[in-house]
Amino acid sequence: MSEEEALKDSTVQAEVQKRVATLTDACQKVLDAMLNTLQNLPYGLRLICKQIRNMTFERFPKTKPEEVFRTIGYFSFYRFVNTMIVQPDDYGVGDKNMSSVVVRKKLIAISKVLQSLFLFGQFKPNNEFYPMNAWINKSKPTVLSYFQDLVDVSDPEEYLQVNRYIDLTIKSKPIIIVSIQELIDIHSLLNTYLEQVAPEKSDPLRNILQDLSEVPKEDEEDTEREIQLTLENKFKSNVEAGLVSEENVYETTKELVIQVFKVVPIKPAQNQTLITVLKDGKEFAKESDNKQLSKNINKIMDNLKVLEEKGLVSKEDRYTSFLKDVALEVINRAERREQQRREVARLRATLKSVKAHQEFIGAQISEFEKYLEKCRENAAKKLKQSKKKPFKFTFKELQKKGVIVEEGGPGIAGKMKFFITMPEMGKFDIEAKMAGISVAKKQLLLDELLEKKEQNVPELELEDRITLNVKMTLLLINKLFLS
After folding, report:
1. DSSP string covering 90-149, please?
2. Structural domains for the chain
3. Per DSSP, what are the bridge partners of residue 421?
4. Per-residue pLDDT reduced to its tens digit, 241-285
């Protein structure tokens, strides 16, 4: 190799090293930014990634974590982060210079390297990004840790604070805004995957879908329209009623069997079954005069008959499947105790919230009553002495003001004169006189008038022949005594 060629080759290598260093620095900055903003990712995205991991391990238990995270990397990075890297102006990232051809090429280069990293891949020797393999191998443990943190999120029930007791704590009915297209999509998905979502025939979701009938046809002009829905419980049964089911009988029977197994000495035998153990238990209870044990065994026998009728246990397999569940129950007892502890904590939190809301409502009512009483006292102080005297009106005057809306008599009521007084705050006496003689008298309460107005009751009878308009009567009283 000549000196000129060697110089040229060293210049090319130096240029390549410079580009690799620049690209490495840019990729490292993007990776650091992703690590720093991990906690800001939407909970829904992280939950989906967690479900992908759990479902993959469940279906392919021998899968390596790196292979599972490769799938998560495609979903989380390629589908979301990658588009922001190559098209930052679409997301309001960067400035106007980001749209130049040179910058676009650099962003695409960063995207390719990071995509290979998040998919745990390598560049081939003939690829221009082959020198980046060293940085990719160095960064793989960091990305693996990133994915482990990504899927480390709590269950929706805990994160969203949603449980079976939520209806007892909410102050108002929840409202959602969805498009018609979203409703159609959800309806279609539920119909398609109903067996997986609601495997039990008694699931309430099946009743709802049955009422909805078929998925409606899409109307292009109408699908994007948004509607507001107030969520209500379609099923009127209360929480306690919903907790009583065949499953409770099954769980109760398992608990009784565990208690019996703790007390009854199991005889070593190859053909020992649940029934033989229960028979031995009866003999042991009789010998030891243990009435509670005998009662528990009888309860187990009765429950097994009920469960067999429901198809939850089988006598043909000597209740082997049921015993397996009992064994799993014993193994998972610590976990179940933790679940019960959380359930009790939720119930206590619910009870605390309900009591706090009850105290809040009670305090509000008390404050409103005090405020109303204060208003009455202030209004009474402002009354002038002249306003305490009776106000006199003829029939025609009240009829003209709209206070009297109907006269049932033959015209005699038109000769009456009306006297309105306020003997005490909030009480008003209306007395009708004819020729100086009282023919009708009625006391009106301000609270009752306001309640009638609130309930849209338009009229009230003063006496058999005269009907008053509630709204106009309130206006007159307000003008005479309260203004």
Report:
1. GGT-S-GGGGSHHHHHHHHHHHHHHHHHHTT----TTSTTGGGHHHHHHHHHHHHHHHHH
2. 3-153 (1.10.506.10), 175-230 (no CATH), 244-331 (no CATH), 385-482 (no CATH)
3. 429
4. 444 456 678 888 888 888 888 888 877 765 778 888 888 888 888
